[in-house]
Every structure is written in structure tokens, then in C-alpha cells.
Amino acid sequence: MEPIIAVNNLVKRYKKADKPAVGGISFEVKQGEFFAFLGPNGAGKTTTISILTTTLSKTEGQVTIAGYDIEREAAEVRRNVGIIFQNPSLDLDLTAEENIRLHVSIYGIYGYRPLYRMMPAEYRQRIHELAEVVGLQDQLFKKVKGFSGGMKRKLEIMRSLMHNPRILFLDEPTQGLDASARQSIWTYLKQLRKEQKITVFLTTHYLEEAEEADRVCMVTGGKISALGTPDEIKRQLAGPGMMVLASDDIETLKNELTLLNAPFVEEPGGLRITCWEGQAQKIVAGLKSPLTKLDIRQPTLEEAYLSLVTGKGGVSA
Predict the structure, then answer these.
(1) Are 134 and 91 in contact (CB under 8 A)?
(2) Does 312 reside within a domain?
(3) Which of the 8 DSSP states describes residue 149?
(4) How far apart are CA 158 and CA 82, in angstroms?
(5) What residue stretches are annotated with the ABC transporter domain (predicted)?
(6) Contact yes or no for 173/153 (Cβ under 8 A)
């Protein structure tokens, strides 16, 4: 199957810059995939996503979105993508519906009408469907200036989905939101992926949001430093996990671990064992001693990321 996003040797150079913002990166994204694009500030993330969504020109390389070339067929690309950038772009003096009506007219999805009731029935049905899904049905005709940060983000998601895009680009979609609003946004996005098989391309500084990605691409200095599933990235960059065991009969537990070829270090809280993913379950299954403590600590994507950007890896106790 042809990838829905194909990037080949993409380069972006800004005038008077010492080095390229994007230095020849290549990757592909499959239809329906949740793809996380991560990296520190200045790594080239926003530049890349801006090129992929046709809002910035490239210097070199080839990029196709849904089979369309981003330069020769930019209009077709825009018809297939929805975009939520990190900086909100809503008119606070308009209602939620008016913001969406203006957006769909500018992008040629529906012709502009001065009143909601004059818009096509298809538009009115679509906007109510999306408002109900994201929980904005009661705020649809209220001015955006009274909305919370989470409500504004939901409105932007609604707006980006009005034309049923095949790909949703999310550039820091939950930045500045509280934990409850972030959870609400992701609950809806998971539902969207499940029901519509939409491809999600995410950049975020909240690394836990990328834990459920199908694949993760980490970039530093405009180049790809790691690419794979979250588990592959964690194994490559963060190293093994850690397990701490304790028992009332600590000597018997030590003997059992020795027989299981599970090296341990004795510490005040129990016996600490370094283990790769999947090993912890095998070790625990092979024990007969009743345990008074079992603490399993696997590496996180955030630890892998920090290992990449700082050179300090490993699971912390």
C-alpha cells in the first residue's frame, strides 16, 4: 500500500542561517497510522510540519501527501489534511459556528453565507455532528471570547475536520491546557482514529501523549536520530527497566533468583534487578517465595527522549 505521507531527502535552508533547519530527512507514514514526530526546540519539527501542510516551501527533496506532490498539487494536499497548530487562530469576537463558517468558505469547502440558516443542509448537519462529538453543542452559537483553553482546542479540532480529511496534523495540540482538558482532547482523538481510520501526525512536548503512537520519529539538529515503535525507541535509547522485590524470607528469595539466573543488588528496600521488557514477568512467574514487595519500573518514552537530547539515559529509581 502506498504511504499516505512520503518524505524523501527533505531539506529546508533559511537565508543567512549557518545550517539547514531540516537537513535531508526521509520517512514514510502509513494510512491510519498514529505517527509522533518529536524533538527539542529548534530541531526542525514545526518547519517540517509546515512544509508537509504546504504553508512553507521546501528547499530540496520530494514530499507527497495522500499521493499528491506538495508543490505541484498543493490544493489537493490541503483538501486531504486538517491542521491544528500550536498557536490558536480563532476570532474571539465571533461565535464558534461563525469561526467555522468563515474557515470553510476561505478553504472553498462551502460558499459563504451571511447567516447560519442560509448555509447548506450538509454543512449544518456536519457541524452539529462534530459539536456533539467534542461536547460543544451548547456553545456552538456563543462567542469564543468566553471559551476556556480546552474548548478553544475542541473548536479548532472541529474546524479542521469539517472537510473529512484523511490526515490530521497536530502541532502541540494540548499546549497550555490543564490535565483534564488534555485528557478530554485525547479521548476524542482516540475515538476519531477508531471510527474514521484517520492518520494522525503529532508533534508534542508532552511525551506521554506519544506513548500510544504506532511509531515515533525523534529529530535533533534537523536530522532523524531515532525511528521506530515506542518500545524499540525505549530499548535503543533508555536501556533496560528495573524491578525491586522483597520477601519475609529474603535468603530463600535470593537463592531462587540465583537459580533463575536473575542477578540482583541488595538494597534497603529489597532486591533490585535490571531487566528488559518481558523478563520481569518470567522472573516473577518462576518464584515460589511469597513477596511483600513487587515494584516494576519500565523505561518511558520521556526517558528515551532525555537520553537522546542530554546523553543521560536509564531508568531512575
Answers:
(1) no
(2) no
(3) H
(4) 10
(5) 5-246
(6) yes
Report the C-alpha gap between 234 and 224 in whole angstroms: 16
Cβ(160)–Cβ(83) below 8 Å: yes
SS3 of 42, please? coil
Q: Can you tell me the mean pLDDT for 97-126?
A: 91
Classified as helix, coil or strand, 83 is strand
- Cβ neighbours of residue 85 under 8 Å, at least 6 residues apart? 171, 172
Cα separation, 187 vs 151, in Å, equals 14
Q: Is 52 exposed, middle or buried (0-12, 13-18, 19+ CB in 10 A)?
A: buried
Specify whether 122 is located in the same domain as 263.
Answer: no
Amino acid at 34: F
Write out the residue range of the structural domain in which residue 245 sits.
240-298
Judgement on whether residues 184 and 270 belong to the same structural domain of the protein: no
| Whether the predicted pLDDT of 293 surpasses 90 | yes
Ordered strands of the 5-12 beta sheet: 22-29, 5-12, 60-65, 68-69
Classify residue 309: in a domain, yes or no: no
Distance CA 88, CA 270 (A): 50
Determine the average pLDDT of the residues in 194-200: 88
- Which letter does DSSP use for residue 291 in this model? P
Domain tally for the chain?
A: 2
Q: Residue 58 sits in a domain of what CATH number?
A: 3.40.50.300
pTM: 0.82
For residue 125, give the C-alpha cell.
448537519
The answer to whether residues 95 and 141 touch, using CB atoms and an 8 Å cutoff, is yes
Per-residue model confidence (pLDDT) at position 317: 45
